[in-house]
Amino acid sequence: MAEPTPASSDSRSEWLVGERLEAALAADGGSDKIEVRWPFLSDSEPQDWEGREFVLIHVYSLLNIKPSNNTHPLLLVPPSNPSTLPLSDQALYCQMAFENLNAPIFSLLPAPLAALYAQNAVTGAVLHVGRKSSEVAIVTDSVVRWECSTSVDIGEADCEEYLEKLLLNDKALNTELATVAGVSSWEPGQREKLVREIREFIFAECTGDDIEIPVAKGSAKAVVVAAAPEAEDDAFDVAKKLTADAVPQPAASNSHKSKKQQAQAAAAAASKASAAADAAAAAIANDFIAVTIPSLPDKEIAVGPVRHRLCEPLLLGKTPGGDTVWEAVGRAVESSPLTIFERLQIWDGIAVVGDIARFKSFPIALASYLSPFLLSSTDLPSDSQADRVRLLSIPEYIANFKGATSEVAPFLGASMVAKVAFNDTAGKHYVNKVDYNLRGPAAIYGVWQDA
């Protein structure tokens, strides 16, 4: 949401949210006239509860629900940032639901729980990649272990900025843009605008096979198993496919062939290797996607393999040696409050949520970077250290979400919980108006544990 600058106005009539805000920011000079606020992601004190209420009322208006005549129960999933849900915040959410939104029934569901439930798990680690930071939450047997949460100051915005720089420095793309735009020299800011639109297109549209995020180098020791209830784990040994060329080959035995035969065999092997290298080079040379942007709507722009590097800030750090999301996952799973048995269970349920999860290859790449936390060899049995990482996904039997990536998991999990919780006649999983009138905002304390 946003309000005109300076932020001295207290009139809600001047606040913008949703499509009105997007239109105002897209207008010339809009970003200079508007102060953008993120009420639910505010880490500052005091928290922006008035802004949160304004956003929720806007959501109600989109659903044609008026608070004055509200008969719809509300299950709220607070954002993952910050990675905690203290009792004080739970009470304020409860107060807002009953006094400002006039909800007849209210419940809270932590985002990590919602994400795991949607992926058929009750124990695991949930990595949420946000705009400017990423959080890792640990869940054991449906209990969020807030004391094990970790966070890093890297997010999707860093990936967007990084990709934009890569595109600006791509000589092939620069030549392509000059040809398509029909210019011999660029006006100030002209090329930057086109590159920004290309970056926006990639993040909005190229989330399937168009982006192949590279796995970690030397990650042959990591065993990655994608979740699929209908099949055995061995059928989804992704790491075996990704790192098959890194598997040590058996030692060569002494040959009894003549020198001429050995020379012919060596020449044939060299020829095959050269052909394979040529094929790989040809594949890279042909690795382009066609992009269309608003500034050149009738033209197609070819973008090369540089696009595959967009997640490097998350996996390699914003600076050399900087913190990464996979290290944050490792720190969370190896937290001292967890037992060895709990850690083994958690490694068997790694979930990725946030908009970046729309890139199907990102979770697999993330898992390959987690190999330093695993056994060096699966041939060495251990009761205290995991030998694989299992990625969670939305089960195929949920027909309406078949093939969906895990960024929708929190919404799906909340939908599943709402159907069960609000049909519970005992009322163990929600607060109604009678409870609120008797106990006030503290009535929500019985629904979820102290965070």
UniProtKB/TrEMBL annotation:
<dbReference type="InterPro" id="IPR043129">
    <property type="entry name" value="ATPase_NBD"/>
</dbReference>
<protein>
    <recommendedName>
        <fullName>RNA polymerase II transcription factor</fullName>
    </recommendedName>
</protein>
<dbReference type="Pfam" id="PF00022">
    <property type="entry name" value="Actin"/>
</dbReference>
<dbReference type="InterPro" id="IPR004000">
    <property type="entry name" value="Actin"/>
</dbReference>
